[in-house]
């Protein structure tokens, strides 16, 4: 289950990542508090989120091409140093303009950092341990988020947001130290793109020629758009048909976080990141989402949220695993950049869409409709992958060849 932790470089990275994620979420909380106290505008928060997301859509492909050409560790050290400076820039409190500038700069860094991080992470462990490493990374991210938000919630009331920004800046220093302490000779060597296949266009042609990857990305987009925006639908259900309180929303958020950790632990324990697991999980969480629209009360909704959150982590982790294992390593940065683009688009499209459905048709109808669509998408994806890979599920026919 914890085989990746036997690798020294991965242990260093996991510890640093836990600290960094905690610091990041402390800054998110402090920044939200700062914006609301300074402007009283939720729309300003939306603009900040948009400024962080847009660069990924515009520059992500070039970030992937860069990741496939240059060594990852020096780039990551530079990115972490710049992020630390951006966190310190928030201490200036120079008005909304500084916040917008930091958000935009963070989005630009994410455009290049995301593919580099994915490629670097896959070099830390043996290829057969990649699925477990990604699952453990998801657990650490969830734990860091819970810890960062909890500690930040206490500190922001006692000290104000400045301390949270300073702590986040220090957390990036922890990552830089970990990167310097790693033994490069123990890392798995990944091939780099040659001169004829380095560009963005070459990466796009490669992705478009991979039917399995395209199907997985399409399924990820549909489920990401309609099945991942529970921050929107949970709030609408609590405030509407469930007749809950702010405490009820806090309970559901906690249950969701616990489910995310359990899902990561389950996948790390089994190590089964196959296409069949991906499709089965997509179907189960879609059916559960449909059922959540029928939940009679907060506790019933919470009972469904727990496995949905666990399944969402399993699905997303298996998507990331298959995207990496089923593609050429010299194209990995650009393939991961494409996954990042799909994830960003699903958030940009899905959150307002789910919110509009909740307002126009009611949260129950929104969950029922979204669950029905994602269920159909899961079944359609299964049929398409069976055709592309030449295998079927036991209920259909015997497998022709060993699946991925």
Automatic annotation (TrEMBL):
Query: Which InterPro entries does its entry note?
Result: MFS_dom, MFS_trans_sf, TM_effector
Q: Which UniProt keywords apply?
A: Cell membrane, Membrane, Transmembrane, Transmembrane helix, Transport
Chief location: membrane
Pfam families reported in the protein's UniProt record: MFS_3
The protein's matches in PROSITE patterns, at most eight in alphabetical order, are given as: MFS (PS50850)
Q: Which residues cross the membrane?
A: 12-36, 42-62, 98-118, 163-182, 203-227, 247-268, 275-295, 301-323, 335-354, 366-388
Localization (cell): Cell membrane
Fetch the PANTHER family from UniProt. Answer: INTEGRAL MEMBRANE EFFLUX PROTEIN-RELATED, STAPHYLOFERRIN A TRANSPORTER
**Name of the protein described by the UniProt record:** MFS transporter
